[in-house]
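Training component of the fellowship. As part of building independent skills, the fellow (R.M.) carried out the full modelling exercise for a liganded target. The chosen ligand was adenosine-5'-[phenylalaninyl-phosphate]. The inputs are recorded below so that the supervisory panel can assess the work.
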Amino acid sequence: MEEVVRLTSLALAAVAEAKDTARLREVELEFLGKSGSISGLMRGIGALPAEERKGFGEAVNQARIEVETALVSRRRALREGELQAQFANEALDVTMPGRAPNAGLVHVLQQTIDEIKRIMGGMGFEYHESPELEEFRYNFDALNYPPNHPAMDEQDTFYISDEVLLRTQCTALQGRVFEQRKPPFRVFTVGRTFRNEAVDRTHGHTFYQVDAFMVDEGISMAHLKGTLAAFVRGMLGDEVTVRFRPDFFPFVEPGVDYAISSPRLFDGRWVELGGAGLIHNNILRRYGIDTERYSGFAFGLGVERMPMMKHGVDDLRYFFENDLRFLRQFA
Ligand code: FA5
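Fellow's submitted model of the complex:
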């Protein structure tokens, strides 16, 4: 009997001292497991005198129950503590500032191109893609340049072969459309153009152009000027005025260069934006269009000029240098 009391108090002390549930499991096996010391007491029961056996058995069971109860409550307490520790360990501070996402921004020229497409589209012009690597015949022949015409020298460019070149003007789209479409139509394109140019503040070897043209009955210079004015006002504000001056391009007659000015931009100075005119009858006839019935206008312009005016940028080379300090100003 003393052994029962001794083992019980040993077991209870071990339970109380266990620091974690793993240790508790060891204590359980040590005393109550199959070969545990309290379980082992029962094995000696046969050696006792018969009248003591019942009392001894009851005492051992009592001891077992007592130790088991202690184990259960200690385990609960330890588990609670272990969970608390785990929670503390895994705690997330949801108020901590996050990592700022590293978002890019749309390049100022692309912003301008998107705006051009929106405004031209709004005026009923269909957008057409056209190739940067262009055939000589579309870049020049189809546009009424006679062979060896000096006007070609103004657009000296990069030849891939005698027939293929980097286009010098987006007007090269005209022949491709005239081959496939019958009037009326309104079409435009935006894209890169290339010229073997002495590069300076306002001239690049690579730059963007918009080119638009429209063919319908009774189209006149008035439609051209009205369309251009609506377009540049959409881009740069309602106060913009458009000035025409006579100019020569083989593919228009009459031809003009046009400049724009706004009291709010560039100190009201005139900025030449592009060339325009009524599509030359030679071109219309070449594509079988009845010039008694139809006429058309065309205009082209340099894209960089617009953000230069709008933001007071005095050198177009900034647009192509990819200096983020410059580009981030247009976020
Ligand atoms: C043309 O390219 C004609 N295709 C425009 C045209 C279209 C006339 C339809 C009539 C009818 P020009 O070479 O002037 O024309 O160029 C047009 C515009 O492109 C210029 O006014 C200018 O804004 C821009 N540009 C021309 N060369 C450069 C360059 N090297 N760098 C930047 N912009 C340029």
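The panel noted the following from the submitted structure. The chain has a mean pLDDT of 92. Residues 50-90 form the longest helix (41 residues).
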